[in-house]
Request: fold
Amino acid sequence: MFDQLKNSLERLLPLTREEFVYFVTLLTPRKLTKYEPFLRAGEVCREIAFINQGCLRYYYLKDGDEFNGQFFFEGSWLGEYHSFLTGQPAIQYIDALEDSQLLVMQYNDMQKLYDEIPKFERFGRKLAENVVIGSQYRTASLLFDTPEERYLKLMRERPKVIERIPLHHIASYLGIKPESLSRIRKRLADGR
Amino acid sequence: MFDQLKNSLERLLPLTREEFVYFVTLLTPRKLTKYEPFLRAGEVCREIAFINQGCLRYYYLKDGDEFNGQFFFEGSWLGEYHSFLTGQPAIQYIDALEDSQLLVMQYNDMQKLYDEIPKFERFGRKLAENVVIGSQYRTASLLFDTPEERYLKLMRERPKVIERIPLHHIASYLGIKPESLSRIRKRLADGR
DNA sequence: CGCCAGGTTGAAGCGCTTCAACGTCTGTGG
DNA sequence: CCACAGACGTTGAAGCGCTTCAACCTGGCG
Reply:
């Protein structure tokens, strides 16, 4: 149950057996069924989750339309950064796209962890730093890649997304309408 | 010279006088003249900078065209996260849009700081966390706001950008061409 | 079987881009 | 001190790609 977590943690900082065990005691397992929400915009996000199995997304709602911000698979950490860090109401919604198993850590426990074992500050730092890199990469792609280029990048760099996520969600992630993505795929299928 | 830095630091974590003084010893002042580069894509970014005065941007180059990623003014920290953190060649270019004064910290000194005074891990963490929030906000805007909405948001939330940055750079930041931004402004000036 | 979500296809429309010309301001050299 | 160059911004006309709206198809599931 904690193998994947252990690998993920150790890539960020080496831990003694005791430290890891202590970390684990702060986690609570939770299951989500497909489409079940983890967080709704407007609520305050008081926890982050390690994904043991499954797939989740966060998305924005604007004028009744959903816009997918990011997809997360097993092995990664997930939370609403803005709300979790500032205590303000969340802007993003988070829900499961597949039945999923999570390991959840409460905000208060996380702060306690930081205070009691300063070494874990490094964990928090590296976690945030990795999110920065990913987020800036995504921003750049939205800024200067065409929708078709964004789709090709996604196929190349994150095949899981193509395999496991429905087309209309991918379209929303790419910033276009499902019809447009469908036409892009057709264009690519015919030799360009 | 260090007043602004002190304010900025204290908002992230309270420091003793000694800690602050030590922090300052790791900084080197540097001046940049307008348009002078701070970093070129392809180089490895080995330093981050606090901006004491002036204005810088980072941008991407694609097929000979520049795309502005972000603008930074006095009081904020600046660096190429991807490269600084991974040691890989930078993707972004950074240069000054005005004559600027910086306080620069070397990567090695920063790691030393983390190791010697673990408390500063919290500084690094909070710095990264703030960047995450900003970056996700920008991504969201590119994803679902129209160019006109993005421009209005910018006027409302970051008037400095409108006042101090040339239109064609703002257009590039918004993901559109200068001609289009010019037309948007005209549309707004005539009552919509 | 029949419903419905997810995906495809067609036609028309709109907004941003492209290309080109022109206006304005500023700094520089004769 | 004036003239000109160059950077920056505006305006017009034509084009293209994504959107919109609508119809239709397919596969999964009650």
Q: What stands out?
A: Chain A touches chain B through 32 residues (CB under 8 Å). The longest strand of chain A covers residues 65-73.
